[in-house]
Design a protein that fits this description.
Length: about 250
């Protein structure tokens, strides 16, 4: 009896407790087993179950608040034939991120590769800008506040990961991310600084409305590259929150 009790205590202390105490992922997160015959469907249902929590994020897993999603600052520098752009953006706030619709998810666990397609029905974004932009269509330079509504935004993400060792444990890291972003419709406003009669803001707006497609064609590749950097950083923060064996149980 005493031996059995001792054995039971030993098992609890050495096997069960470390598993419970060291578990880094909150228990409300449904994990999907590698062996799950429909792994992708499991991940989608796990994400759907988390949706109500995503506006506030999941601090323990380094998942940032998604609605509103805030980027304190962003620097963009591009110098190409068709565009020279220097932009400093701050207080970027986007509402509507948790309204995403998952169109498709395809994972390849052997290759650690993911393909994801989502639609964001409605995104409302604001940012303070300080921009100097030279494109064939004209030049734009100034500071102010940008506001935009974007509907039916389609985001396709393709990425893969690699396994790295830290402190003797295996972790997953983002290896490569590619995005493709398409915008259904958009309506933007700017309030330019030192624009007492509102003429600057008005002409920028007119310019945008008359050249929506061209402006988006120029801006979207930059948005995509920026999104890839942001996804990589957030992805690595999340993947670094728990070892691979916990994130992806056998
Ligand atoms: C965006 O939509 C909101 C309402 O959903 C509206 O109040 C705001 O004026 C719109 N902004 C722009 C730039 O169209």
């Amino acid at each position: 009896m005493a031996v059995r009790l001792a054995a039971a205590v030993l098992i609890v202390v050495t096997v069960v407790l470390p598993g419970v105490l060291c578990r880094k992922i909150p228990s409300y997160v449904k994990l999907c087993k590698k062996s799950d015959p429909d792994f992708d469907a499991c991940v989608i249902s796990s994400v759907e179950a988390l949706r109500p929590r995503l506006n506030k994020g999941i601090p323990k897993m380094n998942v940032p608040p998604a609605d509103p999603f805030v980027l304190p600052a962003l620097e963009v520098n591009r110098d190409r034939d068709a565009i020279k752009l220097r932009a400093h953006l701050q207080n970027i706030v986007a509402h509507g991120g948790t309204g995403f619709v998952i169109n498709r998810l395809k994972t390849d666990l052997d290759k650690l590769a993911v393909e994801l397609s989502i639609t964001l029905p409605h995104i409302r974004a604001t940012a303070e800008y300080d921009v100097d932009c030279r494109i064939l269509l004209g030049n734009f330079k100034g500071q102010g506040v940008f506001m935009g509504n974007f509907t039916d935004v389609k985001v396709d993400v393709k990425g893969d990961g690699k396994v790295v060792k830290r402190n003797g444990e295996e972790y997953l890291e983002v290896n490569n991310v590619k995005t493709k972003i398409r915008v259904g419709d958009s309506s933007v406003k700017i309030n330019a600084k030192d624009d007492r009669n509102g003429r600057l803001s008005e002409s920028a707006l007119q310019f945008y409305n008359q050249n929506k497609k061209e402006v988006l064609n120029i801006v979207l590749p930059i948005v995509q590259e920026t999104a890839e950097e942001v996804i990589t950083q957030i992805g690595n923060n999340i993947l670094g929150s728990a070892p691979l064996s916990e994130l992806l149980p056998a």
